[in-house]
Design a protein that fits this description.
- The chain is α+β, with helices and mostly antiparallel strands.
- The chain has a domain of about 150 residues.
- Helices cover about 20% and strands about 25% of the residues.
- The chain contains ten helices and 26 strands.
- α1 runs antiparallel to α5.
- The protein is globular, with a radius of gyration of 30 Å.
- The termini are far apart.
Length: about 525
């Protein structure tokens, strides 16, 4: 657990912003502050940033009691460990931390860079009509189906999450259900998909209407040829999405001027998610920027207007909401943001020298992520469950927590990624592939999509050639955020499963004809 804040970074403001800050400091003295203290980490968990706070107990930090801090944002990014390719001892010993907010572009130096495997993710068994069979898929959620038990009968079961199957053919099936009058209702034959367990050769039947959520690996010939082209320049989010690490690159733009030993040719080694609070010490003589780890231990007071309505000790039952005080607080907060926003924008993209502690923590987080990813690809022992087993598993299912590394640096927290092969949790949009091969003017991508302020939502840029010559876009680089699967509550899952026919048949009987109403029968008999 972190017990120390990072070093303060003095910032220079324009004379106009200095005057504004001095005026805001006078206004801050008018704010009523809460009597009770909050732990810093509890405060940022509960209140959405930006917020203004006063330091109470500084403990082992560089802050002082009653110091004002403007907490601007939770700054999350991928931090990439980079080392110089130069053999000079002094230069080669330093390791750098490059955030994926860094605006520079680079070219690939590795002779044989390894492209990451990419997957399509689909919702609904009908999506299997897209593919020529056989096709290997991975089931992403527990899914109802029927398993072949005899030559023509298929018994109801549940396919297991993370199980692999070969979709081998399409075949027609029929259901036979007894109604309340004990009559057997026989359906018309309908087409379904046959899945095969690659290890046991057990077969399963899945109708197109089943809400099957599955992934399938994109084969090399299905990727646009440009995806396999390593020429040209790439942004750092593109590098993270496209290539396995380590990889050698050369930065060609936005080289840092404040790092004297930094060289353009570097090796990208490992990466992980890092989170920190970007904050500013409000001081008229020397305002400073500081990165505060969310785990940093100290206590704070907040504006009293923020705590109205929350249960507190010695609470006055007749106390009314201070509308004027809240408006004053909101006005100060808004003006502080306009002063410091440009500072944060520059800082987010800075390359920095990493400390030994920071490098070690990122490496540990990366290794945990890779181990988790490797384990997730292993075939599971059981590919299907009986209905009783499935209902029990669903009721016992708990949230799958991604482990947090025990080692944490002082300046930020490091986090593992459940899927380091797909760091932005993006999938290729199958629907756009044909459209992307039309004329450029018919499918121009909005540039603003590549300038999102959120580091973890930025998509890959598509600027391999001049804009005027972009007749063919690269479908391999067009991505779409898919929502996580909507999991049914255990009770709903059980009801859904029970509503499905117990047995399906691939040997057909004449279907039940719909009975005509008495009115229709009378009309026909009168003709």
């Amino acid at each position: 657990m972190s017990s120390s804040s990072s070093s303060l970074i003095p910032i220079s403001l324009s004379s106009d912003n200095k005057d504004k800050l001095e005026s805001l400091i006078k206004d801050l003295k008018k704010i009523k502050w809460e009597k009770g203290e909050y732990y810093f980490h509890n405060f940022i968990d509960y209140y959405q940033l930006p917020q203004i706070i006063r330091v109470e107990q500084s403990w082992n930090t560089e802050f002082t009691k009653d110091q004002w801090l403007y907490l601007q944002t939770i700054y999350d990014r991928y931090l990439i460990i980079a080392s110089s390719l130069t053999n000079k001892p002094k230069i080669s010993q330093e390791k750098y931390l490059i955030p994926d907010w860094f605006q520079g572009e680079c070219r690939i130096l590795s002779k044989n860079p390894t492209l990451k495997k990419r997957w399509w993710v689909f919702q609904g068994a009908f999506e299997l009509y897209r593919f020529e069979l056989p096709r290997l898929i991975k089931v992403l959620c527990h899914t109802p189906g029927h398993m072949k038990t005899t030559k023509d009968e298929w018994k109801k079961i549940v396919l297991c999450k993370n199980a692999y199957f070969n979709v081998i053919r399409r075949e027609k099936y029929q259901s036979r259900i007894k109604n309340s009058k004990d009559e057997v209702l026989i359906s018309e034959p309908k087409e379904a998909f046959i899945l095969e367990d690659p290890n046991t050769n057990d077969e399963f039947i899945i109708p197109p209407g089943v809400p099957l959520r599955f992934a399938t690996l994109i084969k090399d010939h299905e990727l646009h040829t440009q995806y396999q082209n390593h020429n040209g320049t790439f942004t750092f989010p593109e590098i993270l999405m496209r290539y396995e690490f380590p990889i050698d690159i050369e930065i060609q733009t936005h080289l840092p001027t404040d790092l004297l030993n930094f060289k353009a040719q570097i090796k990208l080694e490992k990466f992980c998610v890092a989170k920190t609070v970007l904050a500013y010490i409000i001081d008229k003589d020397q305002p400073s920027l500081v990165e505060i780890s969310p785990l940093t231990q100290f206590t704070i007071r907040c504006a009293k207007c923020l705590t109205y309505g929350l249960p507190q000790q010695d609470q006055d039952a007749d106390e009314k909401f201070d509308e004027k005080g809240y408006q004053c607080y909101e006005d100060i907060r808004s003006k502080l943001n306009s002063i410091f926003d440009s500072v944060a924008e520059i800082y987010r993209g800075k390359i920095q020298v990493g400390t030994e502690e920071e490098i070690e923590c990122i490496e540990k987080a990366y290794e945990i992520s890779m181990k988790m990813w490797t384990n997730s690809k292993k075939p599971i022992d059981q590919t299907y469950l009986t209905i009783e087993e499935a209902c029990k598993v669903i009721k016992e299912t708990v949230k799958e927590d991604v482990p947090v590394p025990e080692m944490q640096p002082k300046r930020f927290t490091v986090h593992t990624s459940a899927d380091p092969s797909n760091p932005y949790n993006e999938v290729i949009d199958y629907e756009n592939m044909d459209a992307l091969n039309k004329k450029a003017e018919e499918n121009t991508l909005t540039k603003d999509n590549n300038k999102s302020k959120s580091s973890l939502k930025r998509s890959s840029s598509t600027k391999r050639e001049p804009q005027a010559n972009q007749v063919n876009k690269q479908p391999s680089l067009v991505v779409q955020q898919l929502p996580p699967p909507m999991l049914l509550p255990p009770e709903s899952f059980e009801k859904t499963i029970k509503a499905i026919p117990e047995i399906l048949y691939t040997e057909f009987l004449p279907p039940t004809k719909a009975k005509k109403s008495s009115k229709t029968a009378q009309q026909e008999s009168s003709k």
